[in-house]
Design brief:
32% of the residues lie in helices and 25% in strands. By secondary structure, the protein is α+β, with helices and mostly antiparallel strands.
C-alpha cells in the first residue's frame, strides 16, 4: 500500500484557543489560531507553573488515621469520611496551575477586507501548521513549526505581492503581565515571575525579513513593506536553567544566523527520525478533499465513506502529539500535553495520576517511541523525595507514596476537598508500573537495575507499613477510594471512602508481581523478595458480584453512579494483564461490568470513551471497538481532532490510539496474538510497520478480509514465543536481530 499523507484541514480560523492547530518540540509549544487580521498564537513552555513549591501536609492526618480506619472497618463510612475531610485533606487544598507563556500577537496593516479561499492545516508528516488565504487579489501564507535543535518557534509569512507585508509583533500575558520591552529594533521580550517565589521566565521574539524595513516602537517590533518575513520565539525559565535569559537570546541569535530554510530542514530531519519509525494504514481509499469538521459531520450523520481515513489520521495524530509534547524535555505530558490557553485552566492542567497521565503513555512503547516515556520517569524521580515526606508525615510509613495529582515540583500530597478523589495513596504505585513496562518493551537490563527496581522498591516499602490486616488475615489499603466513584452504604448514606477498593489491590498485585519478576531476571536474592511474595499472597482476590460483575469495593455496595466515567475495577483487564481469557469467570465478569457501565451512560467523556475501546480490545470484541471508535468520532472529538472531555484533554487522543493498536496486536497471556479485536470496518485490508510488542519484538504485518497475509518479526534478543493465529498456537524461535517471516503473502 502506498504511504499516505495525513492532513488536518479546516476552512475557517479558530474560534477558541483549543480549536487551534498545535505545534511543539516537547518543551515548547504553540497553538496556531489562523486569524487573518490580528493573529494570536498562544505560546507554552513546559515549566511555566504558577507559584512556588508548597508544603501542604495536614499536620493532623497521622493523629486521626487509626480512628478513620476503625470507623471504616466498623461500617461507619460517612463518619469516617466526615473526619477525613478535615484530617486528611491538604492545607491548603489545591496546587497552583500550569500557565501559558503568553500570546504572540501579529497585527497586519490595512488587512480588514473580505477573505477568500481560506485554509489552515496541520501536516503530520512535516510537523508544521499552515495558514493560507486571499485578500483583495493578494495571496498570503504562513508556516509554523517548533524546532528541536534550535529550540524556537519559527514562523514564515509571505505575500505574492511585492512589498506586500506590513505588520507589527507583540508579546503579552494578560492578565498576568509583568514586564515587556524592546531589546533592539527587531527583538522584543516579556519577562517576570509566576507568582511570588514562583518560576521566573523570559520570552523573546525576533523579527527578520527579506525586503522592507524593521523598527521598534514601545514593546512592538514591526516590518514595513517586506516581501517575506520571519518570526522566531524562544522562551526559558529558571526551573530549567539559571541562565535562562541569556540562553533565550542565544537561541534567537542562532536561529537568525541559520535562517528559516535551514532550521526547517533540520526540524524535518529531527522529527521524521521519530515519526518515521512506524506506519499504519487502514484499507485503501481516496484521500478526501474536505475539511476535518465536514468529515466528522458525515460520520455523525451515519455516512462512513471517510471513517477509515479519520481513524487512521487520529492514530497518526496521537503519534504527532506524543513527539510534540513529551520528547527530549523535562516534564511529561500533562492533561493538555503542553498546550494550554488559560491562566486558570480546568483541573490546573496538572498531571492527574489516577488515570489520565498514565493513559497519555499507554501507546508510547508500542509506537516505538521509548524516548517519549523518559520525561515521565524524570517526574517520578522528582516525586520520590516528596513522596517520602508524604509517607512519613501523613501515614508514619517508610517508602514513598503519591495521591491523585502531582505538579512540576513532584508534589505528592492529597489535593482537593471532594470526598471521592483526594484520599487515594496509589498514584506512585501506578506510575512505577510504567518503569517495568519500559523494560518489557526495550529489554534494557541496565535501566531495569539502576532506575526501575530502586523506585519500585521504594513504592512497595510504603505498603509494607501502610497495608491493614483484616480479620481474615488479608492485606488491604485504606482509607482509600475507587477513583472518583461513590457508593451507598448499608444505611443508605452516600460515601466514597473505603478499605481495599478493587483497583488498589489490582495495582498492588501487578506491582509486587513485576518486582519479583525483575528480581528473577536480575538475579537479585535478598530478604525483600520473601517479604514481598508474602504480601502478594495475602492480597484479596478479585471478587464477582451476585449479578456477575467485577466487585468495585470489598463489599457489594450499590453504586451511586452506575454510569460513572471511571471503570477503575477493570484495571486488571486493561491496562493491567491479570484478567485474561484463560480466566473465564473473571473475563466474563469484566465484560458484564463494562456493559453495565455503558448501559447507564458511562464512557461519555473523551478519555473514558478511549479507555472503553481499550477494554473491548482486550475482551476481543471487535464489534464493540468499532462502536466505541464511532462514538469517539461523533461525540468526543473537536473539529481539529483534539479530544474533548469536555473541555480539551489530550489523554483521549493517546488512549484511542492505543485502543487501535490493541485491536490489531496484543502480547500478553503468554503469547503474541494478531487481529484479536479487528473492527468490521477495518477488515478489508490494512498494514502495520514498526509496531513494538512486549519482549522487544518488532512486528510488521498486513491483512486482507480480516485474515493475516503477511507477518514479519524481529526480536532484540533470542526469544522463544507463541503466536496465536486462526485459533491455533504456534511456537516459534526468534533469533536476535534477524527478520523472521512467519507468513509471507504469495
Amino acid at each position: 500500500m502506498k504511504k499516505r499523507r495525513h492532513i488536518i484541514r479546516l476552512d475557517h480560523p479558530a474560534r477558541h484557543w483549543d480549536d487551534g492547530l498545535p505545534v511543539g518540540n516537547g518543551r515548547l509549544g504553540a497553538m496556531v489560531m489562523g486569524k487573518p487580521d490580528e493573529e494570536t498564537i498562544i505560546i507554552n513552555e513546559e515549566t511555566i507553573w504558577y507559584g512556588p513549591d508548597r508544603n501542604r501536609k495536614n499536620p493532623d492526618t497521622k493523629n486521626y488515621l487509626k480512628e478513620i480506619r476503625r470507623l471504616l472497618v466498623d461500617g461507619d463510612a460517612q463518619k469516617a469520611q466526615f473526619l477525613a475531610k478535615m484530617a486528611m485533606t491538604s492545607t491548603p487544598k489545591y496546587m497552583n496551575p500550569y500557565q501559558p507563556v503568553g500570546d504572540l500577537r501579529i497585527c497586519f496593516y490595512n488587512h480588514k477586507y473580505q477573505v477568500n479561499n481560506y485554509r489552515r492545516w496541520l501536516d503530520l508528516e512535516n510537523a508544521a501548521a499552515y495558514v493560507s488565504y486571499c485578500m483583495e487579489g493578494i495571496h498570503y501564507s504562513r508556516e509554523h513549526f517548533t524546532s528541536h535543535k534550535y529550540q524556537v518557534i519559527a514562523i514564515k509569512l509571505t505575500s505574492d505581492k511585492k512589498k506586500g507585508l506590513t505588520f507589527c509583533v507583540n508579546l503579552n500575558r494578560k492578565p498576568f503581565e509583568e514586564y515587556s520591552e524592546k531589546l533592539s529594533n527587531h527583538t522584543i521580550c516579556s519577562y517576570g515571575e509566576c507568582g511570588k517565589g514562583g518560576i521566573c521566565y523570559f520570552t523573546g521574539a525576533r523579527l527578520t525579513s527579506k525586503g522592507g524595513t524593521i523598527a521598534a516602537i514601545g514593546d512592538f517590533t514591526y516590518v514595513n513593506e517586506a516581501d517575506t518575513a520571519y518570526i522566531y520565539v524562544a522562551c526559558g525559565t529558571d526551573f530549567a536553567d539559571s541562565k535562562y535569559r541569556e540562553k533565550c537570546l542565544e537561541r534567537l541569535d542562532a536561529a537568525e544566523a541559520a535562517g528559516y530554510e535551514q532550521i526547517y530542514r533540520e526540524h524535518l530531519a529531527d522529527y521524521t527520525k521519530l515519526y518515521g519509525r512506524m506506519d499504519l494504514q487502514l484499507s485503501a481509499y481516496a484521500l478526501p478533499d474536505l475539511p476535518a469538521d465536514e468529515l466528522l459531520r458525515q460520520v455523525k450523520e451515519g455516512k462512513y465513506e471517510y471513517r477509515n481515513y479519520l481513524t487512521e489520521t487520529l492514530f497518526h495524530y496521537a503519534r504527532y502529539l506524543m513527539i510534540s509534547s513529551t520528547y527530549d524535555c523535562i516534564m511529561p505530558s500533562n492533561l493538555q500535553g503542553i498546550w494550554n490557553g488559560e491562566y486558570v485552566p480546568p483541573w490546573q492542567s496538572e498531571f492527574t495520576i489516577n488515570i489520565n497521565t498514565e493513559m497519555n503513555y499507554w501507546m508510547t512503547e508500542k509506537c516505538n517511541l521509548p524516548e517519549c516515556h523518559l520525561p515521565l520517569f524524570q517526574q517520578l524521580k522528582r516525586m520520590v523525595p516528596q513522596g517520602r515526606k508524604t509517607a512519613e508525615l501523613l501515614y508514619g510509613c517508610r517508602g514513598f507514596c503519591a495521591h491523585h495529582n502531582t505538579n512540576i515540583w513532584g508534589n505528592t500530597d492529597p489535593e482537593g476537598i471532594f470526598d471521592a478523589s483526594p484520599i487515594w495513596p496509589m498514584g506512585a504505585a501506578w506510575l512505577t508500573l510504567h518503569l517495568y513496562e519500559h523494560y518489557e518493551y526495550t529489554r534494557d537490563l541496565e535501566f531495569l537495575k539502576s532506575q526501575a527496581l530502586p523506585v519500585m522498591r521504594e513504592a512497595i516499602r510504603f505498603f509494607e507499613d501502610y497495608l491493614y490486616e483484616t480479620k481474615k488475615g488479608e492485606l488491604v489499603t485504606g482509607p482509600s477510594v475507587s477513583p472518583e466513584n461513590t457508593y451507598y452504604t448499608d444505611t443508605g448514606g452516600k460515601a466514597a471512602l473505603c478499605m481495599g477498593p478493587a483497583m488498589d489491590i489490582q495495582i498492588l498485585r501487578q506491582l509486587f508481581t513485576n518486582y519479583l519478576e525483575a528480581c528473577e531476571i536480575l538475579g537479585v536474592k535478598d530478604d525483600d523478595r520473601e517479604t514481598i511474595a508474602n504480601m502478594l499472597s495475602r492480597l484479596p482476590e478479585t471478587k464477582i458480584t451476585a449479578d456477575g460483575r467485577i466487585m468495585e469495593w470489598q463489599e457489594d455496595y450499590k453504586e451511586a453512579e452506575p454510569g460513572h466515567r471511571h471503570v477503575s475495577h477493570l484495571f486488571a483487564l486493561y491496562p493491567g494483564y491479570e484478567i485474561t481469557s484463560s480466566q473465564k469467570d473473571l473475563f466474563d465478569a469484566a465484560g458484564k461490568t463494562l456493559e453495565a457501565r455503558l448501559q447507564h451512560g458511562g464512557g461519555h467523556t473523551g478519555w473514558s470513551c478511549a479507555w472503553t475501546a481499550c477494554l473491548y480490545a482486550r475482551l476481543g470484541d471487535g464489534k464493540k471497538v468499532c462502536e466505541t471508535i464511532n462514538k469517539m468520532l461523533c461525540t468526543c472529538i473537536n473539529d481539529n481532532l483534539l479530544d474533548t472531555h469536555p473541555p480539551f484533554q489530550i489523554d483521549g487522543n493517546f488512549g484511542i490510539a492505543d485502543a487501535i493498536l490493541e485491536s490489531l496486536a496484543q502480547a500478553h497471556n503468554g503469547c503474541l496474538e494478531f487481529l484479536p479485536a479487528l473492527p468490521e470496518f477495518l477488515k478489508e485490508e490494512g498494514q502495520v510497520r514498526g509496531m513494538i510488542l512486549k519482549g522487544g519484538i518488532m512486528a510488521d504485518f498486513s491483512w486482507r478480509d480480516g485474515v493475516l497475509t503477511e507477518l514479519w518479526l524481529t526480536a532484540k534478543e533470542d526469544t522463544d514465543t507463541v503466536i496465536r493465529m486462526d485459533g491455533k498456537d504456534v511456537a516459534v524461535h526468534l533469533a536476535a536481530g534477524q527478520l523472521i517471516s512467519i507468513i509471507r503473502s504469495s
